[in-house]
Design goal:
Length: 282
C-alpha cells in the first residue's frame, strides 16, 4: 500500500455503481459504514457519478433509499458541469440528446438563462450528448446531419445546407464505454460517441465527468487534497480523477476491477485496496 492514513481524512468522494451499489442493490457493508460515519459526523461524503441518464434528484432518492442521510450539494454529476458550460458559453439553443427526465431537469435549471433544448438546425449552437437511454436512430441522424450542414464544407454529398453556417459545438457528459449492471456490462455513452464519430468523423470538443478533475472543484474548495480521497471500482475513471486532482485513491474490489487487473495495471498504486469500502477502517 502507498501509505494511506485514515486519520488525516475528513471526507470521501464515493463512486456509486460498483462501490456503494450494484445496479439497484446497496453493497450493504459499504453502505452501513457510510451511514455510521455520516450519523457520527466522523467523515463527510460526496457522491460522484458519471451516469447522466439520471437526474441528481433520482440519486438522492437512491442514496436516501439505502438509509444514507444526503443533501443535494453532496451529489456530483457531469450534468452540473454541462449546466455551467452552457452558462459560461452563453448558449441559448442546444440540441440535447437525453432522456425526458434529464431534459426536464436541465430545462428547469437553465430556465433563467432562456435556453431552448429542441433540435433546430438553424439555431442550435451546441450538441450535448448525455447517457441517453431513450436514444433513437432519429436522434443520431439529427446530430450527424446538424454537424454535416454546419461544420463540413459544402459538397455534392450534402446538398442540403443551413443558412446559418456558424459551426456547431459538440460536448459529451462523460467518457464511459459501459455501465455495470447485475447482467454484466451494458452500453454507456462511449458507444454513442463512437456511433457519431464513425458516421462523419464528429468528435466532442469537451468530455466532462471522471476523469476530468472539474467535478471535484466544489470539494477541493472546502478541503485540502490530503484531507479527501476518491473511492471507486474503476481505474480508468475513478483512479484517473483522483490522480488528476492529486488526491488519494481507495480502490474497492466490489465492482469492475479485480486483483488480476490491478496486477497488470502500469500506473501508480492505489493508496489502499480493499474488498469493500468499509474495510479501510479494519
Ligand atoms: Mg463504479
Amino acid at each position: 500500500m502507498a501509505g494511506f492514513d485514515i486519520t488525516k481524512k475528513k471526507a470521501f468522494v464515493c463512486d456509486l455503481d460498483g462501490t456503494l451499489f450494484m445496479g439497484p442493490d446497496p453493497i450493504k457493508p459499504a453502505v452501513d459504514f457510510v451511514i455510521e460515519s455520516t450519523v457520527s459526523g466522523r467523515f463527510g461524503f460526496f457522491y460522484l457519478t458519471n451516469n447522466t441518464s439520471k437526474t441528481p434528484d433520482e440519486y438522492i432518492k437512491k442514496i436516501a433509499g439505502a438509509g444514507i442521510p444526503v443533501r443535494p450539494e453532496q451529489i456530483l454529476t457531469p450534468l452540473i458541469t454541462l449546466e455551467a458550460y452552457i452558462r459560461e458559453k452563453g448558449y441559448k439553443s442546444v440540441y440535447l440528446m437525453a432522456g425526458e427526465k434529464v431534459k426536464a431537469y436541465l430545462t428547469e435549471r437553465l430556465a433563467d438563462a432562456g435556453v431552448a433544448f429542441e433540435y433546430d438546425p438553424e439555431r442550435n449552437e451546441l450538441i450535448a450528448l448525455t447517457y441517453d437511454k431513450e436514444l433513437t436512430y432519429a436522434k443520431l441522424a439529427d446530430a450527424t446531419s446538424l454537424w454535416n450542414m454546419r461544420n463540413v464544407p459544402p459538397s455534392p454529398m450534402c446538398p442540403v445546407r443551413t443558412v446559418n453556417r456558424t459551426p456547431v459545438d459538440y460536448v459529451a457528459t462523460h467518457p464511459d464505454n459501459c455501465c455495470p449492471s447485475e447482467r454484466g456490462p451494458i452500453p454507456d455513452i462511449g458507444g454513442m460517441m463512437k456511433f457519431l464519430e464513425i458516421t462523419n468523423g464528429m468528435k466532442p470538443s469537451r468530455v466532462f465527468g471522471k476523469p476530468s478533475p472539474t467535478l471535484l472543484k466544489t470539494v477541493l474548495d472546502r478541503f485540502a487534497p490530503e484531507e479527501i480521497a476518491v473511492v471507486g471500482d474503476r481505474l480508468y475513471t475513478d483512479k484517473a480523477i483522483a490522480d488528476n486532482a492529486g488526491v488519494d485513491f481507495v480502490c474497492v474490489l466490489s465492482g469492475e476491477t479485480t486483483r488480476e487487473d490491478l496486477a497488470k495495471y502500469t500506473g501508480s498504486e492505489p493508496a489502499i485496496t480493499v474488498e469493500t469500502f468499509n474495510l479501510i477502517d479494519a
